[in-house]
Amino acid sequence: MPIKWNITAKDGQARTGELRTPRGIVETPVFMPVGTQATVKSMSPEELQEMGVKIILSNTYHLYLRPGVDIIARAGGLHRFMHWELPILTDSGGFQVFSLSSMRDVSEEGVTFRSHIDGSTHFFTPEKAVEIQNILGAEIIMPLDHVVPYPCSYEEARDAMERSVRWAGRCREKHQKTGRQALFAIVQGGIYRDLREACCRELAAADYPGYAVGGLSVGEPKDIMYRVLETTVPLLPEEKPRYLMGVGSPDALLEGVVRGVDLFDCVLPTRIARNGRVMVKEGYLTLRNAQYSRDVRPVDPGCPCYTCRNYSRAYIRHLLKADEILGLRLTTYHNLYFLTDFMFRIRSAIREQRFKHFYKSFKAGFSTAGQNN
Amino acid sequence: MPIKWNITAKDGQARTGELRTPRGIVETPVFMPVGTQATVKSMSPEELQEMGVKIILSNTYHLYLRPGVDIIARAGGLHRFMHWELPILTDSGGFQVFSLSSMRDVSEEGVTFRSHIDGSTHFFTPEKAVEIQNILGAEIIMPLDHVVPYPCSYEEARDAMERSVRWAGRCREKHQKTGRQALFAIVQGGIYRDLREACCRELAAADYPGYAVGGLSVGEPKDIMYRVLETTVPLLPEEKPRYLMGVGSPDALLEGVVRGVDLFDCVLPTRIARNGRVMVKEGYLTLRNAQYSRDVRPVDPGCPCYTCRNYSRAYIRHLLKADEILGLRLTTYHNLYFLTDFMFRIRSAIREQRFKHFYKSFKAGFSTAGQNN
Predict the structure, then answer these.
(1) What CATH number does the domain located at A4-266 have?
(2) Contacts of residue A326 in chain B, CB cutoff 8 Å?
């Protein structure tokens, strides 16, 4: 069964779709929880499936450095290694090389970088990024790209974008398992409209099975991100899935969907959970705060998730204050359930042609205060 | 339904029994996982039940200091607070006051101590220990006792033992909910035979619903612990359950059972799990060691637990090295499953009159090397 995506409904620019893979169907728009090191932090695969997660993301850069690709190959690939039977998307390592490693040196051939774990030196080429991802065996894989920070000069953004396009071509050349793994393309170009447009045109002409918008959510103001999306997405092929990398706050997910994005990933829900922050429809609660010490209500009284069905804010606060692992498990479970359910409701609204209303009414009730803490 | 224990089979000094409580029946001999701060570290209540755990222990000292008894009362008691529906045993705080707090000052009235968390000063009396445990609501509660370290002079051990007996009497005086909570007695007396014997005689005459052997597993050599057990247990009423506090290594559990002990608790299986150590029938494996990095076998190839059914040693080692919470969850799950299953097999062996054989054959195959790491 080759990997295939098709649109099932449209409402404005927003659309629902089905991503068919050998490991099952994923309905879009979808949020992918991040399992950086071959585990979605603090969760078991069964818990993710129980809350309705159908696809996760994992990181080539991290897995390559630790435990190493040979060990995952020996275990029978990433799915078996981590006991996750459903689809996986692996990124190429481009973003991590440029954001995490302590040194990097880019040439046309590839990028030399130092491990953030032990300082050892490594060399990634586009071909190597594909080779590694072929071994890992995810259903969706990404080309090595040259990611620039925000802010970044026009010349730097242009050179990196042009290199990313050439590297994407080399990745496609190298990638052979096109029936079992879909290699997406990544649009770069910083915040510069003409660079983004040029990148879209080149990549669209090459007919990839999916298109990611990269280099966003790297520190730029949100209105700039939304503006870039508006000038980028319409130039991508309508009939191919679009993936906005690194986005996972409820408000930004909505803004992505309304502009025609289909896939998202972000560490936000799991990261803030470990800081004791949970998402509810009104915004964020910091459960470590003293105000919750005697609050015997669930995290979100209207939520049917495992955490909210069985535990009080007071208990979870106690666990967090006492550094108990169950505290992180319960907040993580709730946040991932929240986003999974949120995407479910977005898909229903699109199918029922009431997405505009859903968008407005959610935004009116949701405060982003403290989102970045 | 009052709390009641009765013997169901005997094989030498070893016996099986049923502890009947308003929250279900617990078959003995049983190992109780420790949920010090109202959570068995890294586990959910569902996971404990799935592996067959029927009773857990929690700590009055810790819960009194954090989150505080008023919050647990407000939440409807300890069971509801922590979402654990089955029986609980709470200890009195005696052991923690004497082992954890930075200062303690004992008088006949009670003990003044400083919190190990924030240095605040607190005063526990036998009556207060019962009051707190009445609010927590465990099925089995313990009297405040004066625990002495090892080594300890005869005079110190004698004074502490005599005080513990008087305090036990005051606890019983205070305790009213005898139908819903069974107040056990605790035998003290250090390593001194005549003190242990005197303590047993006094407490046995007072007819408590169960008897704990306290003040052991506090650093003394194991053969001393076994010798004390041998002189203590035969003086306790045959028809009452006996609880050896702080013991949880497989070899010591066996030695306790063969000497007529029915209940055990210990942090060992959960604590070593967090250091990456797991129990198998041959002894202990340190999964963080490099030798497991490419080992795709389960932790224990013959074990049917969740961890062993789904994950390899190589994956768990990777998680532990990468500081991933799932690593601790999987090792903890396996260790608690191991002990729960171990006690199940002990009970079967006793019922089938083949405990001596089970004892010898397990001991012959099990190495205690590295047990205390």
Answers:
(1) 3.20.20.105
(2) 39, 41-44
